[in-house]
Amino acid sequence: MAEKSTKTLGSVLAWKGNSLTEKAEFMEWLHYISYFFGGAFLGNAIPHFVSGVMGRPFQSPFAKPPGQGLSSSTVNVLWGVFNFAVSYILVCRVGEFALRSTTHVTLMGLGFLLMGLVGARQFGRLHGGDSPQDPNAGSGL
Questions:
Q1: Where are the beta strands (DSSP E) in 1-141?
Q2: Distance (Å, rounded) from C-alpha 55 to C-alpha 41?
Q3: For 95, left (φ over 0), alpha (ψ -120 to 50), or beta?
Q4: Helix, strand, coil tally for the chain in percent (to 5)
Q5: How far from chain centre, in Å, is Cα 38?
Q6: What was the pLDDT predicted at 16?
């Protein structure tokens, strides 16, 4: 009579690496990616939330056309809070983010910086920020 296999779904889906050290290194890289994207979501949350609480319409993925049309201040507050929540999950609930770790803070900061630059280019194109003009030009001041 053939022996019955005792493999469970968990053991089949378990790590296939050679050692616990390899698994730990792989998981550490996943944490680093999470911190980077947590910074990007934080960078996206701030302009939406600030525009919303100031009562100003701002571009959002829910506008028509998405990313170019304006959404209400209420939509932007909600979108900003959603981005804050995602950032919190990616930074504080994945791994063990340490403010004293240069690597952790640098990765989060790079995500924040990248989202800031993308936002500056995207919204600068729509609001004239890519080619600012002197506000005093032609006024004789």
A1: 58-59, 70-71
A2: 21
A3: left
A4: 60, 5, 35
A5: 5
A6: 57
Q: Are 17 and 86 in contact (CB under 8 A)?
A: no
Return the closest-CA partner of residue 38 out of 88, 79, 82: 88
Residue among 50, 104, 108 at smallest CA distance from 81? 50
With contact defined as beta carbons under 8 Å apart, do 87 and 39 qualify? yes
Residue holding tokens 């089949």? 12
pLDDT digits (tens, 9 = 90+) for 121-135: 888 877 776 666 655
What distance in Å separates the CA atoms of residue 81 and residue 46, rounded to the nearest whole number? 9
Given a contact cutoff of 8 angstroms between Cβ atoms, the answer to whether 94 and 33 are in contact is no
Q: Which residue has the tokens 């996943």?
A: 30
Q: Is 81 exposed, middle or buried (0-12, 13-18, 19+ CB in 10 A)?
A: middle
> Other C-beta atoms within 10 Å of 118: how many?
13
Mean pLDDT to the nearest integer, 81-89: 98
CB-count burial class (<10 Å; 0-12, 13-18, 19+) for 140:
exposed
